[in-house]
Amino acid sequence: MIVFVFQLGGQSWAIDPLEQVELDQASGLQSSDDIFNQNHVLNSRRDLTRASSYKSGRFAWYAHDGDEKTAWVPDPKESGGSLEISWGLAEPIDRILVREKKPQGIQSLRLELYDGKHWEEISPISPKERGQFQFAPRSASAVRLSLATSGSSSGIAEVEVYNTQRPAPLARFGSPGLLAAMQKSEAVVLFDGSPYGYSRAGRTRVSPRVAEACLSDDWTRAVLLFVCESLGGKVDRVEEDRIEADRISTELNGQTFTFTMTEGHGVIEQVGRLAERAGLEWLQQGPLVLVGQGLEALKQKPILAELETLLGQNPFLIKARPEGVADAVVTPSLTQEGTTYEWAGFRATAIPGTNTDAWLKYAETRAVRTWVGAPRYMDMYIRPQETVDTAADFERLKAALRSAPEENDIVAMRAFLNKHHEALAGEFSVYQALGIEVINQTGAKTWPDTIHDDFINWASCYVLTYYLAKNFDVAAHQYGNEPDWYFDQSTDEQVRRRLTLIADAVHSAIDDVNRDHHRGLTAIFSAPVLASDFQGRNARIMMQTLHTRYDGTESSDRLFQLFNRHRYSGRPHQNALEVRQAKQMMREEAGEVLPQVFTELNFATGRYWGRPTTTFTNDTPAVFSAMAGIWGWMLEEQGVYGIFVFKLSDPGVWSWNNTGPFSNTVTYSMHREQDPDGDDKEHEQISYGTKNFEVCRLFSKGFHSGRPLLKTDVACSDPEYRSWTTYDEESQRFFIWSTQPSDFQGYEIEFDFSHLNLPHGALATAELVSGARHGEVICGVALPASQKLRLHQPPKSGMLITIQAQPLTHEVVSPVADATVQQGEQAETNFGHEPQLSVGRHSQSDQNRMSFLKFQLPDEPAAITHAMLQLHGQSISRHAYDGGFLFRVYAISEDAWTEDQLTAANAPNVFRTVSSLKQVDLEHYPVGHATCFHEPSDMGITVTQAVQEAQRAGREHLSLVLIREQYWPGEQTDDVSAVFAARESGGGHGPALHLWKERPQVDASAVQAESIGGR
Fold this sequence. Notes:
Number of strands: 45
Distance between the termini: 57 Å
């Protein structure tokens, strides 16, 4: 049982320092915890702060919190360093305070301001007060501090940036009237259904860890915790097991009492009881609930109206802004300045019998890292008839094995095939079917230091590599996963021999497959797969042996093709810095530089995601926007061959360390819902792809396979806003990746494509991952004559813009059939002629609704290059807050259903009592997601892959299912559903399939700029 103890007026519980480090990556620490501080740096994101060096436990963003114990300190190996802090778009400032840690060790301090174009040095008030800067107001968006130090522990404790002429605190906290009222009170304000609350800390999430937590009966416990903590309370947590308690023990001002969650008390009533026991005021005013002291000051109608606006609007929704000067101008060119990653994919395992294949198909990734390790799969089958005692024995048996890899008395190959071939063929056939390139984790991390064990491990890796290359064309392998600890216990010679032995095994196996089976495979061996110090001893040993074989002879070829390590850090700047540092290390040791590959990368290591105090998930905007930045910043450095995000699938996630859905796995897995009489699935299935997954999906769609990286000019006063461009010659498409890191405001961005030589009316689409969007299409237009596109990009988001560079024709197809089905008592009822479609998932199956669409595909031969589904609808919610409703769109191969006969009882591929598809595989797979809100609007989902596949298969129709499934055990979606205009609705709002086809010749005078919204 979990017991929560409240106590108003006390210190918060202690948090493990390492856990605090990870918590800081996604939570906003403030140098002052109230809204009246005018410091621009207050609550600015730590991932927008960059440093010349990063040290464990001393991350650069600590320069925001004013605590000398957590100050930013330059690397002691250097004589100084630099620190940059950005607060977004340029704003007027006139004063800066710099608080130094151990100032006696700082020899000099230089401060510069960035105005959007240039850095300008600012002088302190006097030489004696070098940390105080006062100057005439000027516009700036970032500050840079450069230090020269004489000691290892001198640094920056805090930086404060002010506009002393500002008449009121920062506008993001509210109007002067609201702030004046808050000064007279000590209050917490909540809004019906909103995940946000308002207090002296400004607008903050009720529960940073759970996006859905809001003023609703389902989140009573989270709301009570938030109210108590916001009013200065103390919370003691005692965790006894994973089952949530129905009773909450509360101590307020020395009085102990208990809340019982099962007695029918709603959340508002519970807040009232909490206030009564604590001697606080509370007030319910429409959708607002206020609790605290001095509420009279907040009862004015204008104040209440502002609070409703502040808490009742989703801050991540795109809001219209008046036309004016853009916040950023992005101008791609045709000048190449590098290449994209060769690999941009996931750590994944396509387990036969699961739906991983469908999700890999949806992701459209072209690279995965697999885990068919030689120690697990092959070691037991290496059975030499003699003990290998000498180097001559090793070479003799090695030669015998290479001369006949598949028929010899050293390997029990038949036994291996009998046990593993069927499962491995099931896995790797998925990668082959989807055109996915594989890098496989293979040899052991360590083994006993004998020649016999050397041979066992060489032979094991050789035979498995040969098998994977012969059967599945796998030619890229990496050393055993994260051998750091084992290498640290070994001598330099042992580390060299192990690395070079496995390298030799991989290259020998690929050479022999090419010899025996007339292939043209190129061996890639990637090492040392480090988890920690990428510049230390182990990395340097590998680079020193870049051309030295295990027997000491020299090779003209490299034994290692890629420098491999893992990285878990949400700081784009640090990742980019480390790429440069790794290059320098390689030059020092080998005089040449290997391309780098990250076969594991995510926001933070797995151990930090499941703890109760961890505030972030893979759906937290700070997480997925940081990952969006990492992709681009590391691309900008060049020299990175590939990145594999950890990870696409993990069937054991629910049983691992009690993490539940909040692990660093970018998809959630669970045993899928099914009818009570259904057969249990052997494996957990992927149930949900997080927004971090969507960021990786969109980026990898455009920036893989070594495409040209094109010079892209960005004019923006925010130095952290970035954009990158590439071109795919095969599909004739430009891809632009845009990352918006600001916490507090959306950016108006103008994309100027006039330098790309595009045809008149070229198609431009934009797909967005943000706090409100899940990778869906937000824009699809034919570019005007100016070749400029204006988009509003919300805070903390990643966006992929795709430009079709060839002339296209546009066709709009209406469905030939559409219908909603409803389970339970309505399972036999046909709703095919209703004017509305509906989607909803409920704890009672009677209210489960899903909708089917069927489109007639064109029969003319013109190739379809792009296809998009358009829907028009809105969410229906009992809450006042417009939180949106997310649902999924599947393509299915069954086309025989008809509109006037379809029911829940006969609908293809759906269960009868739960909102879930029966089969999710390569023929029934997700094609996208859509989010609708209270306000009716158009939604777009890219369905190009599904349309092209249906045409290749010779099908006449495309069938789609709109469905809301359960994404994690216990998820509750009873309070919200969605309705859409059906084809019978009239008014031109019914579902539509937009098709763009190749057009060899273009009559420019006949082409009109058009939006997909007009039909």
